[in-house]
Amino acid sequence: MVESTAGAAAHSGALACLWRTEDDTAAFAQQLAAQLQALPPDASVFITLHGELGAGKTTLVRHLLRALGVQGRIKSPTYAVVEPYELPGLPVWHFDFYRFSDPREWEDAGFRDIFAAPGLKLAEWPEKAAALIPSADIAIHIEAIDDTSRRATLQAASAIGQHLLQDLCASP
Predict the structure, then answer these.
(1) 21 phi and psi, to 5 degrees?
(2) Quick check: 46 and 116 in contact, CB under 8 A?
(3) What is the DSSP string of 25-42?
(4) pLDDT, tens digit (0-9, with 9 covering 90-100), for 123-147
């Protein structure tokens, strides 16, 4: 079961969750996907994922992409840096900046155009692209508690991020 401490946190633009199992992570991803799919088709949402290696960033993204309707293999973009997904009404880009050695690589790769377009952008290791990437609408910090449990803190930094977290908090 997904446990959240929404209450006062929702009013401050933050949400804390405890995912005891991977099924909890998948359930949370389903809720987030439903909120994202309810946005207008021209919406642009940027979500950053933070955490140590093995914290569960890619696992959360895979569950979210499945919940959004991605079929087939979902690859980690660790080597390719970005994996695009074209879903009806919602283009999605999954970035992994782990291998960046210089933040200017973001600019050189032409990602500015992607971030200027509507759609969902998910970025692991955003700190590797430093100040060149736009501000996130939601930052998700994931901490591994043990082999199966994760603590996630979601912080909204925009109106659309606050809207998504508020709706998540209101979800059953």
Answers:
(1) -140, 170
(2) no
(3) HHHHHHHHHHHHHTS-TT
(4) 999 988 877 888 999 999 999 999 8
Q: Where are the alpha helices (DSSP H) in 79-133?
A: 104-108, 111-116
Identify the pLDDT of residue 18: 92
Whole-number Å distance between alpha carbons of 114 and 46: 11
Residue 59 corresponds to which amino acid?
T
Our measurement of the distance from residue 116's CA atom to the centroid of its chain's CA atoms, rounded to an integer in Å, reads: 17
The β-bridge relationship of strands 82-87 and 90-96 is: antiparallel
Contact 95, 58 (CB under 8 A): no
What's the pTM? Answer: 0.87
**What is the per-residue pLDDT across 38-86, written as a single tens digit (0 to 9) for each?**
999 889 999 999 999 989 999 999 999 999 999 888 877 776 788 999 8
Identify the pLDDT of residue 154: 95
**Cα(131)–Cα(62) distance, integer angstroms:** 26
- CB-neighbour burial class of residue 71 (10 A; exposed 0-12, middle 13-18, buried 19+): exposed
Euclidean distance between CA atoms 105 and 97, whole angstroms: 9
SS3 state at 108: helix
* pLDDT top residue among 84 and 6: 84
Give me the residue label for tokens 């960033």: 57
